Amino acid sequence: MKGESSNFAPILLGLSFGLGYATQWRIGGVFGPSEFLMMLYLAASFLKYQLKIFSLHDRFLFPLLFFQLLIVTPIVTIAVLLTTELRVMPEYIIHFGVIFFLMSAWYLDLKNGFKFILFTKIFFYTFVISVGMSFFFAGTWSTSDASGIAFSRFTSWAINPNTPIFYATSLMLLVSIYLKEHTFLYLSAIVLICFPMGSDAFFLSIAIALLVSIYSIIIPIRKISPGAYVSISLIFFIVFLYIILSQYYEDIATLWSAADLGNARVQLMKSGIEFGATSPILGHGYGAYATLLGRQRWEAHSTFIDLFLIFGLILPSVMYFTYFRFIGYLLKNANIAGFAFMCAFIATSMFHFTGRHYFFWFEFILFFYVLESAKMLKRDSI
Q1: Which domain holds residue 219?
Q2: How many Cβ atoms sit within 10 Å of the Cβ of residue 305?
Q3: Total structural domains in the chain?
């Protein structure tokens, strides 16, 4: 009975996240197979853990999440809605309230023998098979003519081709950490099915992962401390950046202009930072507050900045501090592939907002749990 129970969470979560990109299947753009599976998981978790779902599992993070997601940000959202004409999205109060209880359930499952390999494999096969089937049955392509360059991008079962790319890059990170056998084959399959989506963020993530992997082979992680490795890496990065910019600045500027839709992303991020600075502690609540074309109704298209706009500076700072701590953990354990794709994950998150997706928050809780577990093991060994 215990074995069946321990398999339930990784299988259901793997199926849900594997279909999380399929926004075309959502009814009213809100509820689809992935969301149904996640609500089924939450209901089963409540039956399994009962009142533990409402617990604050540590002394810092979960109290912060509780006050931020269930108290502070909902109040700020309603206040901004009633007193301004900004593009406020009060429906996200319920969405992020559900995310809090999901994070509690995820954390409990992670602490109780969660099968990471099974979960990652279910996620992988669900994602790859469903995207592969869409080549034959969906036939959905979107056309872009940004910067005068016309090209088509495959969207699979998604409305926006960047949605499956977020799940693909996240999946590659999990594969590099948990699937130690045939890792290259798993990663190659993901790259192959996502290549027709033509995402600049995806190509950037692959390039970053390859460069970091090659560099980590040249400067072996196992032979020096993480601190020394980071210091040496910063020096190499500055020198490398100087050489590249001095030789290929005009070509890079042309490519950036095409990918940036005529500097639109830079404008959105800049206006997002400026408006976020007007309420750096409480944020502005759920909504889209960046300015483009004279209208203040856009997302900043950068995960950290959009979280800053919504929640204020505290929560996104804690999240990204956790990401960098996890990089240190991967360095300490000499996991080159995991380190490479974690760097790619952080870098590409700066050019898209992924904070609406359940899986974004699952990854955060996963990293936090791994770090806390490592800390407890170290404490017990002393």
Answers
A1: 2-381
A2: 24
A3: 1
